[in-house]
Amino acid sequence: MLGISGTATTLLLLILGATVRADEPTTEEQMAANLGMSKFLVHFSRFACPESPSTGDKAECVAYGYQPVTDAFAKNEFPPIWVPVAGVSNDTEGYQKFLSINGSVPNIAPKGVNGVPTPNLAYDAAKDPDCWWTNTQCVTPKHDGVKADIADVPEPKTLGYGFDDGPYCGHNEFYNFLTSKGQKATMFYIGSNVVDGPLQAQRAVKDGHELCVHTWAHPSMTALTNEQVFGELWYTIKAIKLVTGVTPTCWRPPRGDADDRVRFIAQSLGLDTIMWKYDSFDWEQGTNGVTPADVQNNYNKLINDAKSGVLNSRGAILLTHELSNYTMQTAVDNYPKLVEAFDYIVPVGVAYNKTNPYAETSVTQPSFAQFAAAHGGPPAPSGSASSSPKSASGSPPAPSASGVKLDNSNSTKANNHSGAVTVRLQLPATILAFVGLAMTFAV
Ligand SMILES: [Zn+2]
């Protein structure tokens, strides 16, 4: 359903963007490799990605202006996109907040510079003093006062369903699919993508998905200073709030790169850290020798574990991506198999009875019991979600997203671009590039 049209289509893309990062490979760079594109192009704008799901969705990927974002960039309220945040010293509110927590941050040295990990860093993996996930997959902190990660869900035969790296410009057909199934998920959004695709980000909240932070520029978080870690999260929270009106309370580190220092800074901003124990490696397809069959095998591992009883005491979280036509199509293809294998497929927060997924109470999501009752599966085991790291307070409100105020006036723009290209003006002039690129699709 997400195949590229067979009709030859010429698409003129105006590519605007930021300076090119010189850090380690990211999923975006992997996507570039998948597509045979240069890193340069992808880092100039995700909207340059030609792998939109369909002819209609290609139109969604034409850049457009959105006034609140334009105004915020004009006032220098955000750092350059796709560049690791340098700091927050020019942001009065952010800097005060940072100073208020910095003295309590566990004393752990950054494991790299400016988001680039130090090669062959000496680290005692046996002791794992920092609970460094990248090295040991540690999710139980070693430092006092640091909240444990969420890496699975407490409900049996339940899948915590989510997608990283969005909002993807051409995701409407995928989101339509999820909506057609009544399926909600946890979406881990990159701040740079949120300001590039504000209408796409709004759709996630309108559709009732749970929005979490996935950093501003997708760096390796343990390779940043305290202030940079803070900034990556701070500006992504701020972007999501500006565009959708809600303030996330969860995040996922790119590549899982967190340690107790990073976790502490995140929790100081009110963010739960959400990891995973099953990885589809969908982002890697086409690179490093990873084939579609390999990715399917990874999905099958989860599906078989659910069917064979491995997940009968606790459910699972699977890492997948809203990154390309391939990753979304693979999610669509596997959805019926997941439905068959699991009793419930829910946003991660639902499995933890997080009925208030945002700082604002205007948007709620069901408790697990409410979800189970509404979906007619086996009765939820009584009290089985009591291990919730953040229990719901009081009687849970009825599931509703009606309280959120979204800008619907432009929503059709994302769904139905006229094809006219709108020059985006919100980026700082010093990093603004203007490139016209004619791309011919003759699939
Ligand atoms: Zn990611």
Automatic annotation (TrEMBL):
Annotated GO biological process: cell wall organization; chitin catabolic process; fungal-type cell wall biogenesis; polysaccharide catabolic process
Domain NodB homology positions: 157-353
Chain segments carrying region Disordered: 372-416
UniProt-listed Enzyme Commission number(s): 3.5.1.41
Alphabetized GO MF terms: chitin deacetylase activity
Pfam families on file: Polysacc_deac_1 (PF01522)
UniProt protein name: chitin deacetylase
The organism of origin for this protein: Mycena indigotica
